[in-house]
Amino acid sequence: MSCWDTIADYGLRSLGIGERLLPREGFTLCQQVTLIGSGMLWNIYFGICALTSGFCLATAVAMGKASNNRVLRKLSEWFIFIFRGSPLFIQFFFAYFLFLSLKQATGMFTAFSSAWAGALVVLFLNTAAYSGEIFYGALLSVPKGDVEAADAYGMSGWPRFRRIVWPTMLRLAWPAYTNEAIFLFHATTLVFFSGFPALQQKGDALYYASYFADKTFNPFVPYPILAGYFILLTLVIVGIFGLINRHLNRHLPQDARPKLRVRPNLLR
Amino acid sequence: MQWFACYLTTGKHMGFYVSFGTVLLLLAITAPTALAFGFAAAGAARSAVAPLRWIGKAYIAIVRGVPDIAFFLFFVIALDQAFEWMRHKVKCADWDQPIRQGNDFVVCAAAKLPLGNSPQWMHETYGFFLAVLTFSIVFGAFAGNVLFGAMRAVPHAQLETAAAYGMSRRQVFWRILVPQMWVFALPGLSNLWMVLIKATPLLFLLGVEDIVYWARELGGAKTPRFTDYPHGDWRMWYFLALLIFYLAFTRVSEVVLGRLMARLTHGQATTGGEAQRKAAT
Prior knowledge:
The complex is a heterodimer of chains A (about 270) and B (about 280). With about 270 residues, chain A is mainly α. Helices cover about 70% and strands about 0% of the residues of chain A. Chain A has a single domain (about 30-255), classed as MetI-like (MetI-like fold, Orthogonal Bundle), CATH 1.10.3720. By secondary structure, chain B is mainly α. Chain B is built from ten helices and two strands; from the N terminus they run H-H-H-H-E-E-H-H-H-H-H-H. Chain B: This is Amino acid ABC transporter membrane protein 1, PAAT family.
C-alpha cells in the first residue's frame, strides 16, 4: 500500500471519513504522519472558533473591568479570577460532568456533552478571561492625550470608543495577544484527555500521537511528529498575527512600530 | 447530616484527602528542583565555554517551543525506557537479543524498574519520582529562561566594576550577579509558580493516583450492592470542590508572593522601590 492510499484512507479520519479501523500493526511512518495531521484538524477548529468568539467576550470583559459601575466591575473581576486561577484541565472535567448532569436532568444540552461543543464552550470562556486581562492592561495604558483629543473633537461614548480607544487598545495589546493565541492552540491538545470522549476514535493530534506511542511503545516517532506539526502551526499563527500587527501600526513611523516578540509558552 | 459525616470519612475518602498531600508534596519537591535545573541552564547559557552555552540555550529553547502536555506524555515513557536501558546494559551484559523487537521494548527481568516482584508502594513511588523528574525538566527550562533574563537585567556596570577590582569570572558570577538577580527574577518566578500549581492535575496523565483520579473514582454513581453509601453521579460536585481548592490555593499564593515582592523591592533602586519610598513619606 502506497503512501497516497494511506492519505486517502486516513486523511480525514478524525472527522469520521475514510477507513473505519485505525491501523493495528506494522505502523509505517506515513500512517503516523497522516493520522496525526488529520487530528490537527480538530486542534485548528477548536483554536479558531474559540479565538474568534473569545475575542468579542474579552473586549466586553475588559470594558467591564475598567468600568465605573461596581456590579459590572466585580462581575468581570470574578470571571477573570475564576478562569485564570484554576487549571484548564479541571475546568474541562467540571464542564463535562456538569453538562452530563444537565443532560440527564433536563434532556437538553445533548450537544454539549460531546467535545465539539462542550470543550469549545470551555475554551471560549477560558481564552476570553485570559485575553480580557490582556485587553484590560492595554486599556489602562491608552495614552491620556488621545482620549483628550477625542473629547476636544466632540466625540464621546460609542464613536470615541470605536474610533479612538478600541484601536489603540488593540494595538497595544497585540504582542501579548499573539502569545495568548499560540497558547490557546497548544491548550486545545488537552480536550480529549479530560473527560470528553473521542467517539469512534475521532480525536485530535495528541490523541492519535498517544495512540501510536501506546501501541508501539516508542514515543520517539509520534511525539516529534506532533511537535513538528505544532511548530508549523505556531509559525503560521505568528505570520498571520504579524500581518495584523503591521496593519494596526500602519500610521506610526517605521522605527516607532512595536516588533512582535514571540515568547511562548507556559501551560495553563 | 449524619449520613454525610459518615460518607465523607470512609477509607476511600481518606485516600482522596491524602492525594491532596501528594499534590502539595509534588509542589514542594518540584519547585526547588526546577529552580536548580533552571539555574544550571541559565548559568550554562552564559558560560564562556561554547558547547556548554549551546547546551543551555538549546535546552531552554526546545522545551519552550512545544505543547507541554506532549512533553509530559513523552518524557515519562522516554525516561522510563532510558533508565531501563541503562540498567540493562550494566546488569545483563550477556543478553544477545535486540532490545527493540518490532513494537516491543524488551529488557531482561533484572533490569525492570521497579522489579517485577517489588511491592505496590515501590511502583507508586517510582511513578511519582518519574513525575517529579518530568515536571522538573519542563519547568526547569521555563525557570532557566526567567533567570537568564534576570541575569541580563542586572546593570552591566556592576559587573564591570567587579572585574575592574580584579575579581575572576567565577567570583563576579557568585558574589555580584547572583545576589542581585533575584529581584528581577521574582515576578517571572512567581508567575511560574502559579503555572506550576495549575499544572499539577497533569499528574493524572502520568498515572499517579492524584486528586483527579480520586474525584472520578469517588464521584461515579454507586449502587447499594457495592457500597454502604449509594448515590448518583456526583462527579460534578467533586470537580467543583477541586476547582475551589485550586482557586483558594492560587489566591493564597498571590497574597504571599505580593508580600514577598514588597519586601524584596524595599530599598531597591527601581520604580517599585521608589514608589514604596514615596508612599512612606
